[in-house]
Design a protein that fits this description.
Blueprint: E1 2-3, E2 5-13, E3 19-25, E4 31-37, E5 40-46, E6 59-63, E7 73-80, E8 83-88, E9 91-96, E10 104-105, E11 111-112, H1 121-124, E12 132-138, E13 141-142, H2 143-148, E14 204-210, E15 216-223, E16 226-233, E17 240-244
Domain Laminin G: 1-164
Organism: Nyctibius bracteatus (Rufous potoo)
Protein name: CNTP2 protein
């Protein structure tokens, strides 16, 4: 395809922080790649570069954060020549691509959910998308519907299922005054705790527990955006251990 205008839209949800959402490339150096990197959305676009390097078309735009929260996020990419509108969850970002070319030349198949291994260093270092997509629309073509009805030719669909499996984890929301208290295990000499958390607040207490027989306590908190573990032990000389990350 050689296009002056493109409109690409889809919805996705995932608990993975890395993954290629879609990719297309051409023989003249053109490419478009939408991917997750560190739970942010990154659009890489090149409408063509010349061999001398005086026209270098690579453009990269990053938007959003914490997109691996397993909630639905919507993306719309609208391109007219070098003018791009990138909309993530109704937040629109406008930019112009580098270089001097207006057409996107894609000579190979467009892939959703990953990119084909081409032998280039860029292809083998990128992870495929793991999660759910719906309402994939590429320049007026309903890709989701075409894939389900097996109307895409040529196509290499791989192991797809047309349903979205929900994770088995159950989140718990805490406000500034709520907490969860569980019974201790006084007969155990091992203290072990693991959990995932997400917050916008730079400070807060995550876990606190007293040891049995007044031997001290352990505290896990967030202090100025850093997670810290404090272990207080009574009856010993070095009675406090602090670890932060």
């Amino acid at each position: 395809m050689k296009t002056l205008k493109d409109v690409i839209s889809l919805k996705f949800k995932t608990s993975e922080s890395e993954g290629v959402i879609f990719h297309g490339e051409g023989q003249q150096g053109d490419y478009i790649t939408l991917e997750l990197k560190k739970a942010k959305l990154v659009l890489n676009l090149n409408l063509g570069s010349n061999q001398l390097g005086s026209i270098y078309g690579h453009t990269s735009v990053m938007t959003g954060s914490l997109l691996d929260d397993h909630h639905w996020h919507s993306i719309i990419i609208e391109r007219h020549g070098r003018n791009i509108n990138l909309t993530l969850d109704r937040h629109m970002q406008h930019f112009r691509t580098n270089g001097e070319f207006d057409y996107l030349d894609l000579d190979y198949e467009i892939t959703f959910g990953g990119m084909p291994f081409s032998g280039k260093p860029s292809s083998n270092s990128r992870k495929n998308f793991k999660g759910c997509m719906e309402s994939i629309n590429y320049n007026g073509n309903n890709i989701t519907d075409l894939a389900k009805r097996k109307k895409l030719e040529p196509s290499n669909v791989g192991n797809l299922s047309f349903s979205c499996v929900e994770p088995h984890t159950v989140p718990v929301f805490f406000n500034a005054t709520s907490y969860l208290e569980v019974p201790g295990r006084p007969s155990q000499d091992l203290f072990s705790v693991s959990f995932l958390f997400r917050t916008w607040n730079p400070n807060g207490l995550l876990v606190f527990s007293n040891f049995a027989d007044d031997l001290g306590n352990v505290e896990i908190d967030i202090n100025e955006g850093k997670a810290s573990v404090h272990i207080n032990v009574t009856h010993v000389k070095k009675n406090r251990i602090d670890v932060s990350s």
